[in-house]
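Morning!

This is the sequence you dropped in the shared folder:
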Amino acid sequence: MKFAIKTVAVSALIAVSGVALAQKGETVRIAFMDPLSGPFANVGQNQLKSWQFIAERYSGKNPAGVKFEVVGFDNKGSPQESLNTLKAAIDQGFRYVTQGNGSGAATAILDAVAKHNERNPGKEVLYLNYAAVDPALTNEKCDFWHFRLDADTSMKMEALTSFMKEQPKVSKVYLLNQNYSHGQQVAKYFKDAIARKRPDVKVVGEDLHPIGQVKDFSPYVAKIKQSGADTIVTGNWGADLTLLVKALNDSGLKIPMYTYYAGVTGTPTALAAGGDSEVYVVAYAHANHTGELGQIAADFKKKFNDDYYTFATYNGIQLLSSAMTKAKSTSPVAVARAMENMQFKSFAGDVTMRASDHQLQQSMFITKWQKADKKYPYSVENTGYTFVPIKQMDPYVSSTPTSCQMKRPASAS
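The structure's back. Tokens below.
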């Protein structure tokens, strides 16, 4: 796929005309706020490295001519700690923040950024959400200063159930999820969507467990066995999915599992320990991209011996650069305005930052866990296994309506 974003043409025109970019050479500092300690630290550390790697790779080598610097702040996954880290970042002069692990933390940051911007005109902060997928963040809680790069829970579930409805052996489903907004919504949206698309499918069991606190998932696996389920659907991520996979391995239970985050740090290694398993992932990307993104993943692995899987970091830097080119400024007000309805070519076709709710509209993939081969050679976590794309869906398939009533500040209207 061609990878050049549309604004490259704009950049070329500016260069030819000899007009200097007002923001060229500026350094745009981004405060990263996610768990860098605790049960989800391995995920947060990987994602911080991903942001920093992409920022370094495209510093000065982007249409806007700006440099990017990403600095990590440990919010421990806590909404309260997120407020503390946000205050620290603002006090240190950061005008851009990014966060993704946990919609509770995302809601706290969104509210605090909105209040700060209202009280401090001229010192506005822009929030790039790269992974917190609560639909409320771009519906009833939507805010002008918040932009989501990931697809929300409902969008992913539309794509996932569109695939599952075509799988005749899916008959009895067990829902196991973390007991917070994301996990609750995975269960809710699955039941709503499958009832529309495959009313014959039955939910034979459902559990919500404390997030980041369960050390042994064997009691849950025993309940799955007892239910007679032939399929598991889970939105779990990080240690909560890794430990679930380990419990499934120990029990010898091998039934198809449909997930959001099986590719996240630690889980692939657990999957490989169990041998061949039928595991699916719904996401906006996959492990075996070619072209520029494939090279990025290869270079990241060479540098860190780790997998690059948070592809929203690439889209985030491209989106900022494109908007800064259009705005001829690094001011969050001008950049936020420029980002609305912005279209660019991503690694998976055209993407659009929808103006009505600031939700990125993008293609979705269903991938399947299998041994790496010549066609799909990327070895996830050096396991010899990989996630291969088996279905790509255009943005309209997973696009969901929004109830957002966007209130734009006078300076940005």
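Headline: Confidence is low (pLDDT under 50) at residues 1-20.

More detail when I'm at my desk.
O.
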